[in-house]
Each structure stands twice: as C-alpha cells, then as structure tokens.
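Reopening this one. Same input as before:
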Amino acid sequence: MTIMDADDLLPNSWDLLAGADWASLEHACGSAAGTPALLAGLLADDAGAQARARRHLSDPVHHQNTIYSATVPAALYVAAILSDPRTGTVVADRDGQALPLRAALLAWVTSVAIEVDTEAEAKMADVGLCLEEHPESVQVRALRPRLFQAVSGFLHAPDLAVQEAAIAAAVSLMDAPELVQQRAFLSSCCRSDLEGCVSNGSLDRVIAAGRGHEGRASW
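Same output, byte for byte:
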C-alpha cells in the first residue's frame, strides 16, 4: 500500500500517451508530437527503444533541467509506469553503472520535482523571475501529490538503488503544501532507511544526481 492510498489519482499510462494533445505541447526541440511514441519505448522489450526513451526524457523533454509543457504529462506517465514489472529491467546510468530502470525513472522524477521547489523559486526570484508566472512549473507543482503516490510505493523496495531513489524523490516532493500531513508519516516509516542513507551519503548522492551535473540531468 502506498502512503497515499487513492487509486484514482494516477491515470492509466496508455491513456496518457493516447489522450494528451502532445502535438500542442513543446520540449526543447519544438513540438512534442513524437514524444508519446518514444516514451512507449520505456516499456519495450528492446533495449535500444528503452535507451532512446530515456534519452528523450532527459533531452529534449527535460533539457538542462528545464520544465516544458511536455514535461508535465511525461512526469505523470513516468509515475504511472513505476509499478510496471518491466521497469525492473536493468539499464546503465550515464556513468555506466547498472541499476533498475525504475531507479533511473525515480531519479528523473526527483530532477523534475526540485525544479519547482521553494529553492528553485527563490533562485528564479533572485534573477527577477516568478515561478508562478510559468504555467508548466505551476502544473508540475499541482502534480506532486500524484507523483508522491507513485513514489511512496517504493520507499521500502528490496532493491537498494530503487529504495534510495524513491526516498530522494519523496523528499524532493515534500515541498508541496498538499503533502504536509505526509511529512511526519514519511519520517517515521522511513527513519531507519533514511538514517542508513544519510550515514553512507547515498541520499545526498541520489539527490545530487537528480539536480544534475553541470546543469544537465544525470539520471
């Protein structure tokens, strides 16, 4: 059971791909009309299709950690497929380290979530920008309860890489005011896991990975 036990919060993944007006959305390269076909590759049996889908999520959908209009339904799609057994496929991160696809997707959720948190909002304000004036960022903020619902199912995952990535994603989403009541519960149910992650530095490492290296997503 997830922390937020609300089955109707997450739509069917295929409905997301077929139902969204992707042609009206944009990413770093312009129209996102081709994005649903590429994202479907995340659940393909073909390793090449999975790799192309992951690259597409990183760039152009979340190019240099930017939130585009296409990032919004893409984030919801990623959340919707986290529980699919096919995300247990082992892939390689940018450093060549093997990890489950699910862990990589959780790290991508983290990279999206931290771009709309209060720290990101403050950085934008420092350069005269207002996060609330960017519809895409506002829409991602509104998605955070749904993303948390998906993430919370893996806080005690048996695979350590998935567990660490889920904890980092959950922490990044805790900035949402709608999740205030979940903070104490998250702390209590994950205290032992969090202590282990903090003691060996892995939680910091996972969150840092979500923030990216030299401005680029590193998941």
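So the earlier flakiness isn't reproducible anymore. For the record, The first strand starts at residue 26 and ends at 27.
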